[in-house]
Design goal:
The complex is a heterodimer of chains A (about 350) and B (about 475).
Chain A (H helix, E strand, L loop, with lengths): L3 H18 L5 H8 L1 H20 L6 H8 L3 H13 L3 E4 L2 E4 L1 H24 L4 H11 L5 H11 L24 E2 L9 E6 L4 H10 L6 E7 L4 E4 L4 E4 L1 H4 L2 E5 L11 E2 L9 E6 L5 H9 L7 E7 L6 E5 L2 E5 L1 H4 L2 E5 L2
Chain B lengths: L10 H5 L4 H11 L7 H20 L9 H10 L5 H44 L4 H39 L2 H14 L6 H10 L1 H7 L6 H10 L9 H12 L5 H32 L10 E4 L7 H36 L1 E2 L2 E2 H15 L4 H9 L7 H10 L10 H12 L3 H13 L4 H11 L2 H28 L5
Antiparallel strand pairs in B: 2-3
The chains are: A alpha+beta (about 350), B mainly alpha (about 475).
Chain lengths: ~350, ~475
């Protein structure tokens, strides 16, 4: 059999596929960019980028915008011209400034993005490291009224699953609080209130270490090479570049760790315990479900049996036997009673 | 928030009567200002209130004990006895269903077909044209009678037994035992229950997925329920196992081999359920396993009246009526195809000839594919339709004796072991019947998912049978 034609046609097919499907320069991408909705998405992404720059006190130059959006020089110039003619931005001193209208629109997109993230994480239960990418796709598709409905259905969340504040209907956004881990002083414990989800690689590392919102941690060691944290049981090691994406706030002494509470999954067999609280990271559907089953603070429960592989485990609570998987039992904090 | 004072709702009304619209508008305005976790407070206060009421109304002597329940639980979830007890129960339910349904099925069929004969004879004597008699009695009525006599007795036995296990409190323990398997597939432990229900009828299994409270896992259970063979498909599997597998063994082991091969097909079905669940939860229905919460109710004596009602009225009759609604037109179509001749050959034979190349590609033949197309409304009529076309009769025909059947299939129509194996696989994996597809549509309220639930299994069936046929041909095991 002669393999040359096979290789030739295979290569040709691969080239053709690449020309059609290449994410930035392929025919499909071009077509999308030039379609009406594609153009709007482009404008909205640019607005979001410029808003982020302004919030950190910078005014982006056209080159920076081109770089951030992976556009060629001529494409970005066309985009800027269009946005100027729509009254969304003005060029000044070599930088791009948002107009009031542009800022209002940008806020709408940020709000859409964070509400979508909340929905995807707490109701659709998408894995946390995929939430951002999915929200990027969906943020362009809702009107302001639909967003308000989504917000109401979610129960007016104040922050997205990474701890970023969600802008209100009036476009007001609560100031992000917290201090990056790299600037956290000494041994005082702090509560994690924000995990920055960009860049995704750093965020994936944070998740892989097992850090989550609401966790109370202490800094054990801080050197230019690494930062070591502890939540009282496990140690977490992060590179400083990654640690800069973890934000803490001080906690009142009364709530500090060491009150003897543990996740329900670690409660020894046949020990009676009292529910202290549901984990902050447990929101939306799961939280409602656990509350409905009677796992409210103060409720007493006792592990009664295990599956022969150890998971799930059944607990007696309020006279009923309820089986939970380890993932759910991890999110219920209990205190053993003697 | 005045949650702490729920007993005096009239206080605010005494001052200024608020119209409902104003009240709702105020709620709307205040609602965003509540904290994130005010729901916690609401549930907490509800439980506190319920506890106060319970303390006032109920007096208990000492602590509630659950000794007997605990002892049973330890046994049915133990590493040694848990799985064997479960398999034993399942086997007992199957055995009782198949053995118990045999005689009533036969009696029902005899009675219903006797009516057909008498009615047809009556029509002929009063001079009604043959094609009206044939269409009405040998077509529509025969289709109905067939489905009723094959479906009703097994369902009337299976569903009450299933409901007894449900009422007893045993079924949630099965879900508890098997959850580890489904967790790995990204599904819910309760899917094992909906699968067990699917043995009775896939449409009933799809409805049973309502017990799964998270939408993602519920959809997975709905879309994969088809991979457990239902009562309507068991006759095909048993026929093939008896004619082909059992015949290859010495008489002493024949029935054991037949039973073993049916069990093997069921296990293959379970395997495909898990694999497809796994694939779905990583592609189309991506998401983390959501709240798995499973209530294990206390054991109790089954309530016979309620069991008969839910299993016979809610399940058996409901499913049967839906199946009859689709079987009647199918019976009509079969009769028309079998009785209209073009160029001396029936329409059915023409279509079968046309489908032959496609059927050959997957190790089957055109007649089998035609039977599956006609049997989309109800799988029970696959075998009778095949017999009709093979034997050239103008109506659905019962299986001749086993020996005659073997000669007919192997001798006259070129069936091989590959045909038998692939027909078993195709019967297990192919698209669900129209009743089930309709039920998927009603349960998901989405044409898209109903279409997917029908086409995904069909594609999988073609793929798997194509692969087995190609493999067998490459190895020289089949022509």
């Amino acid at each position: 059999m002669n393999f040359l034609p096979v290789i030739f046609w295979g290569l040709l097919l691969a080239l053709l596929l690449a020309a059609v499907f290449h994410p930035q320069r392929g025919v499909l991408a071009r077509w999308r960019m030039n379609s009406r909705s594609g153009q709007r998405e482009l404008v909205e992404d640019a607005l979001k980028y410029l808003l982020k720059q302004e919030q950190s006190g910078r005014h982006a130059a056209p080159e920076a915008l081109a770089g951030a959006m992976h556009l060629s020089g001529s494409d970005v110039l066309r985009l800027i011209t269009r946005m100027e003619s729509q009254g969304l931005i003005i060029s000044q001193d070599g930088g791009l400034h948002l107009t009031a209208e542009g800022e209002r629109w940008a806020m709408h997109i940020v709000r859409a993005h964070r509400l979508w993230e909340s929905y995807l994480a707490t109701e659709a239960r998408l894995p946390l490291n995929q939430v951002h990418r999915e929200a990027e796709r969906r943020e362009h598709r809702l009107t302001a009224e639909q967003l308000n409905e989504l917000e109401a259905a979610l129960g007016y969340p104040r922050q997205d699953p990474h701890g970023d504040p969600i802008p209100g209907r009036d476009g007001q956004v609560a100031v992000a609080q917290g201090m990056p881990l790299t600037a956290w002083k000494g041994e005082t414990p702090g509560r994690i209130i924000h995990l920055e989800d960009e860049p995704p690689l750093a965020y994936a590392q944070i998740l892989a270490e097992g850090l989550r919102l609401g966790q109370v941690v202490r800094v054990l060691e801080a050197s230019p090479q690494r930062i070591v944290l502890s939540d009282g049981e496990n140690e977490f090691r992060l590179a400083p570049a990654v640690a800069a994406n973890v934000f803490l706030e001080p906690i009142p002494d009364t709530q500090a760790a060491g009150n003897g509470s543990m996740p329900l999954s670690e409660l020894p067999d046949d020990t009676v315990a009292e529910v202290v609280a549901l984990d902050e990271a447990c929101q939306g559907y799961t939280r409602r479900r656990l509350l409905d089953l009677g796992m409210t603070p103060g409720a007493r429960l006792q592990p009664e049996m295990r599956n022969f592989f150890g998971d799930p485990r059944a607990y007696r609570v309020r006279g009923t036997l309820i089986a939970l998987r380890k993932e759910q039992a991890d999110q219920i904090w209990v205190r053993p009673l003697n | 928030m005045t949650l702490s004072n729920p007993t005096h709702p009239s206080q605010s009304q005494t001052e200024s009567p608020l119209s409902p619209q104003d009240l709702l508008a105020r709620v709307e305005a205040l609602r965003p200002k509540l904290g994130d976790n005010f729901r916690d407070e609401i549930v907490k206060s509800l439980y506190a209130e319920a506890e106060t009421i319970a303390r006032r109304a109920v007096h208990a002597k000492g602590e509630a004990r659950y000794d007997l329940d605990q002892r049973i639980d330890r046994l049915v979830t133990s590493p040694i006895f848990g799985l064997p007890i479960m398999l034993l129960m399942l086997a007992a339910v199957f055995w009782l269903t198949i053995v118990g349904a045999n005689v009533p099925s036969k009696m029902l069929a005899d009675a219903l077909f006797w009516v057909e004969e008498q009615a047809a004879a009556l029509f002929t004597t009063i001079g009604i044209p043959w094609w009206i008699t044939g269409f009405l009695w040998h077509g529509v009525y025969r289709g109905l009678a067939w489905v009723v006599s094959v479906m009703l007795p097994p369902m009337a036995i299976f569903f009450p037994m299933f409901t007894i296990l449900e009422d007893l409190g045993y079924l949630p323990r099965v879900a508890f035992n098997l959850d580890w398997l489904f967790k790995r597939a990204g599904a819910h432990g309760k899917q094992s229950l909906t699968m067990a229900m699917g043995f009775g009828c896939n449409a009933a299994g799809v409805i049973a997925t309502r017990v799964i409270d998270s939408p993602r896992e519920r959809l997975i259970a709905i879309l994969t329920n088809n991979f457990v063979p239902c009562n309507g498909r068991f006759p095909t599997l048993i026929m093939l196992a008896t004619v082909f597998v059992a015949a290859a063994f010495p008489p002493l082991f024949a029935s054991l081999a037949a039973a073993g091969s049916v069990v093997l097909v069921v296990l293959i079905g379970v395997f495909f359920t898990l694999v497809v669940s796994w694939a779905l939860s990583r592609t189309l229905l991506k998401g983390e396993a959501s709240a798995f919460t499973l209530e294990l109710p206390p054991y109790r004596v089954p309530n016979i009246g309620r069991i008969l009602y839910t299993s016979l009225i809610d399940r058996t009759i409901f499913v049967l009526l839906r199946a009859m609604g689709t079987a009647a037109p199918a019976g009509a179509v079969i009769w028309v195809l079998g009785n209209i001749n073009v160029a001396g050959v029936s329409l059915a034979q023409h279509i079968a000839n046309f489908l032959n190349p496609l059927g050959g590609l997957i190790g089957l033949d055109g007649v089998i594919l035609l039977a599956y197309i006609i049997a989309i409304p109800a799988n029970e009529i696959v075998v009778p339709t095949m017999m009709m076309v093979y034997m050239g009769t103008g109506m659905m025909t019962d299986i001749p004796s086993l020996e005659g059947l073997r000669t007919l299939l192997v001798g006259s129509h070129g069936w091989s072991m590959l045909t038998a194996v692939n027909l078993m696989l195709f019967s297990l994996l192919h698209n669900p019947c129209a009743t089930t597809i309709l039920t998927i549509y009603k349960e998901t309220n989405s044409r898209k998912w109903a279409a997917f639930g029908a086409l995904m299994p069909l594609g999988l069936a073609f793929l798997v049978t194509f692969l087995t046929a190609s493999a067998a041909r490459l190895l020289g095991l089949a022509p």
